[in-house]
Amino acid sequence: MTVKVFRAEFVEFVPPDREEGVLYISTTYRTAVHSCACGCGLKVVTPIRPSGWHLLWDGDSASLTPSIGNWGFPCRSHYFIRGGRVHWARQWSSAQVSSGAARDRADRDREFVANARTTPSKAVGWIERLFGGSK
């Protein structure tokens, strides 16, 4: 059955048997998971990251942006979750999906580089201590 509304449930771990119409949110793992809104039952994982999805919790309901495009699923569903409600979006062509995937990869690469510049690597410190590098 098609889902019209998602109820947010904060969890540490997503249960193996997902309930239809529940958006499981793990702040520990910065991820939201739900069963596809079309009713096909496939698991949709949305990483909450600067280069992934953004989660807004208003105290009653959750919103995810950008849209959720399940292009790898047989259903190819495309929708937004705003205030817990499903808002269906138009289908994308194969060219649009490819372009969007390339943009997403570039965003993830930029995020990785930015994090590498600002977060000292534990591995580098360990290697320096092991081989007598700078302290």
Characterize the overall form: globular
- The radius of gyration is 19 Å
SS-based class: alpha+beta
Strand order of the largest sheet: 1-2-3-4
Termini separation (Å)? 60 Å
Mean pLDDT: 85
Share in helix: 25-40%
In DSSP terms, counting alpha (H) and pi (I) runs of 4 or more, how many helices? Answer: 2
Beta strand %? 25-35%
Q: Low-confidence stretches at least 5 residues in length (pLDDT < 50)?
A: 122-131
Series of secondary-structure elements, N-terminal to C-terminal: EEEEEEEEHH
- Total number of beta strands: 8
The biggest beta sheet, please?
A: 4 strands, mixed
How is the topology of this model organized?
Layout: E1 7-10, E2 22-26, E3 31-35, E4 43-47, E5 54-57, E6 62-69, E7 78-82, E8 85-88, H1 94-118, H2 122-131
Parallel strand pairs: 1-2
Antiparallel strand pairs: 2-3, 3-4, 5-6, 6-7, 7-8
How would you characterize the overall build of this protein?
The chain is an alpha+beta fold and 135 residues long. It has helices at residues 94-118, 122-131, and strands spanning 7-10, 22-26, 31-35, 43-47, 54-57, 62-69, 78-82, 85-88. The strands form 2 sheets. It has a 4-stranded mixed β-sheet with strand order 1-2-3-4, with no helix packed on it.
